[in-house]
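Milestone M4 deliverable, item 7.
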Amino acid sequence: MKIRYEDIRRDEEILSFIEQGDRVLGSLGYTEHSRAHAAKVAESAALILKELGYEENIQETARIAGFLHDIGNAVNRTDHAHTGAIIAYNLLKERRMDLQERLRVMTAIGNHDENTGSAIDDVSAALILADKGDVRRNRVRTSNPASFDAHDKVNFSVLSSRIDIQREKKKITLSLTLDEGISSVMDYFEIFLERMMMCRKAAIVLGCTFFLSVNDTKLC
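Output delivered:
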């Protein structure tokens, strides 16, 4: 039987990898990377491709890549994209996923981190946009501003985020609502500029132009 996203997101071994990765990052002071983040990225990646007119089977591959993209954190944050790509390939092989599909998942996961990766194809591009677009207050592990580092401060200031697709205009916009009493727009750029550049390249792979809008003001 063909493996589906619904099988993946209920798989106890896979969920254990995700939960262990979140524990590792929690001990290091990173934002939440739990199954909630995995599921949000999975659904967002698939929705981006759906809005752009891609077939359901490609959307499904993106969902699976999105759900699995951070499992390498269970080993180590450093090189987690590469470690996770190999782990994902082996897990999916054991579950008899089609070879070409699991290769695409492997490549997408291996290229989702801004330090070492770049969009290679439609699935990897959608994963990058979905992952970098998941910026929100409730991913910060503490609500005590005194304990915030620079990333926590910026993430906590984001009241809402969404990815808007305008297929006809070939535009992809990440729209943020930012509490500028906590963090300024410049703070956001200082922390996330590299990620936004990665999103711009990902949009190009999808035949689109990337825009960032903060508090209803288009910035790039």
